[in-house]
Write a structure and sequence with these properties.
By secondary structure, this protein is of the alpha+beta class. It folds into two domains: 71 residues, Arc Repressor Mutant, subunit A; 79 residues, Glutaredoxin (3-Layer(aba) Sandwich). It has eight helices and four strands, in the order H-H-H-H-H-E-H-H-E-E-E-H. The chain has a four-stranded mixed sheet, covered by helices on one side. The protein binds FE2/S2 (inorganic) cluster.
Length: 169
């Protein structure tokens, strides 16, 4: 697949590799609806930027998809998977919604906070871990759970949490 011609700013800010990946999202939709690729584009750009999005990057996405910047900001601020500030190398997204809460997510959060020495919403000083509180991730049957990258870790105990951290250290 060839890379689409980008306007100067987007071409400068988004790498050729990133634009190619966005083009693959654009190709999934009718030509006149390239804006539908905005979530895919945000995912690609965030992943290629160490896990977070800058205003400059979101503006470049808007330009590339020929949509308003505010429409891109709205998507990026609405969904919890997008980060507008730098995060650690490993982002632990802990569900604290009803099922997970009833099955002990408070203990999991307390354990992680103690082990990592940070609170929910914070990043360790070595930039290795970020703890993030999230709403239901649709894995209530495995509560309490957390998401790490593309993986779900379910039926958590303090022991299994320790095992997850040990593998990441
Ligand atoms: S309440 Fe935690 S996954 Fe649904």
């Amino acid at each position: 697949m060839s890379i689409r011609m980008a306007k100067p700013n987007a071409a400068k800010i988004l790498s050729a590799e990133t634009r190619l990946a966005i083009d693959q999202w654009i190709a999934k939709y009718p030509v006149e609806q390239k804006q539908s690729a905005v979530m895919g584009a945000l995912n690609v750009v965030q992943e290629n930027n160490g896990g977070w999005l800058t205003t400059e990057l979101m503006d470049a996405i808007a330009e590339y998809l020929e949509m308003s910047t505010i429409a891109v900001y709205e998507v990026a601020t609405f969904y919890s998977m997008y980060e507008l500030e730098a995060v650690g190398e490993h982002k632990l997204c802990i569900c604290t919604n009803v099922s997970c809460m009833l099955r002990g997510s408070e203990d999991i959060v307390a354990h992680l906070e103690k082990k990592l020495g940070i609170k929910l919403g914070e990043t360790t000083s070595d930039k290795k871990f970020t703890l993030k509180e999230v709403e239901c991730l649709g894995a209530c049957g495995g509560a309490p759970m957390l998401q790490l990258g593309a993986e779900y870790h379910e039926n958590l105990t303090t022991e299994t949490v320790d095992g997850i951290l040990d593998k990441l250290k």
